[in-house]
Amino acid sequence: MGTQPDVELRIPADSAFLAVLRTATAGLAARLDFTLDDIEDLRIAVDEACAMVLPQAREGSDLTCAFTLGTGRLSVAVSAECDHPMQPSRDGFAWTVLAALTSAVRADVTDDRLTITLSRNTAEPQ
After folding, report:
1. What is 7-121's CATH topology?
2. Which of 51, 55, 71, 125 has the highest count of CB atoms within 10 angstroms of its CB?
3. How far is Cα of residue 125 from the mean position of the Cα atoms in its chain?
């Protein structure tokens, strides 16, 4: 298994709570000296990842957001329990946005969980 996250937030799997994740993402990226543009890109990327996970989330479940901080790098894993998790379409707009705004993105499906993991390095060339 991977390393333990530095910060983990668990919120209800409801879009009304996503502002909490956007704020946490911005605050952690700022601590890593990301530029304002990079911080905004990360906020959008986390929103897009949540938009892929939430429709599949089991009713009444939690959305988990695990942040791993590194030197000049922030990784974010967004996941939720799902009844029948499916891989998100890599041909869709949301995946295209994620790929454009991050250094790396992947989706992992288990029997009962969908996880979208993204990462971004500081000073990413655009």
Report:
1. Heat Shock Protein 90 (3.30.565)
2. 51
3. 20
